[in-house]
Design brief:
Length: 240
């Protein structure tokens, strides 16, 4: 994609290579490199910090955590490790539309893990027991506006204790830096393309204010926070 055509005033109407049909081997190589980027750019930090606050309040039973659009599953594996170290009881479910992603997440997970992996479209999935918190990472920028509003409403309806969106901040400097970085390091070709495209499809705080209002949420209940580097997180905590 020639970078001259990106207009950062609006979410770009671009598609990502990882959303096109591809072999499982190709998707695995892409998701592995995406997980490396997540590690290098401290992507798990905002979710862990937020979970730390949520876990201290509420009923004394395992915290039910759902990760929507879990991809490689690296976020949930990190949450499981974090909870084990802090002796926080959790039950973790990773959900992804793509059955290949779910198979890849399961095979990348050690046999000692208790994470449950589910292949489903989030909008067609009915939790079998109440979900305490819904989290997602690099998922929401894949959705069109009507689906985004629907997702906000879905999380509001299906979470007992709140939800956390960890996504990207739309801005030219991170876009160009990520474009250069993915090429220099030689990451998978999907990541070289999709990384900067994801930033162009991502959000600024005003997008989230408008979307939350359209979803019928009260902005006083919502936190919209930039998290370095290049993330914009949106969260809602409910009083148990
Ligand atoms: C960029 S990946 C993010 C993977 C991972 N969460 C991360 O942070 O690296 C987005 C994932 O969302 C999944 N996805 C897209 N639409 C979905 C839907 N409606 N329901 C569930 N998963 C969906 C895709 O299959 C893809 O694996």
């Amino acid at each position: 994609m020639p970078f001259e055509i990106v207009d950062f005033r609006h979410r770009a109407q671009l598609t990502e290579l990882m959303d096109e049909p591809c072999t499982r081997a190709e998707l695995r190589a892409c998701l592995r490199d995406l997980a490396r980027l997540n590690r290098w750019f401290l992507a798990y930090r905002p979710i862990l910090r937020w979970l730390g606050d949520v876990a201290t309040l509420g009923p004394a039973r395992p915290l039910q955590i759902l990760d929507v659009g879990c991809g490689y599953g690296d976020s949930l594996r990190r949450v499981e490790q974090w909870a084990r170290v802090r002796r926080i009881a959790v039950e973790l479910t990773g959900l992804d539309l793509n059955p290949d992603a779910v198979a890849i997440a399961a095979e990348a997970t050690p046999p000692t893990s208790k994470i449950r992996w589910v292949a489903s479209n989030v909008f067609h999935w009915q939790p079998d027991k109440p979900v305490d918190v819904v989290v997602s990472s690099l998922f929401t920028h894949h959705l069109a506006e009507p689906e985004l509003i629907r997702f906000l409403q879905w999380m509001e309806l299906n979470s007992e204790r709140g939800w956390f969106i960890n996504d990207l901040s739309r801005a030219p400097i991170p876009y160009h830096l990520l474009r250069l970085f993915t090429r220099l390091v030689g990451l998978h070709r999907f990541v070289q393309h999709d990384g900067p495209v994801s930033i162009a499809r991502a959000f600024v705080p005003d997008d989230w204010r408008r979307l939350c209002l359209e979803a019928g949420l009260d902005l006083r209940d919502i936190a919209i926070q930039p998290c370095k580097p290049a993330r914009l997180c949106v969260s809602r905590r409910k009083t148990p």
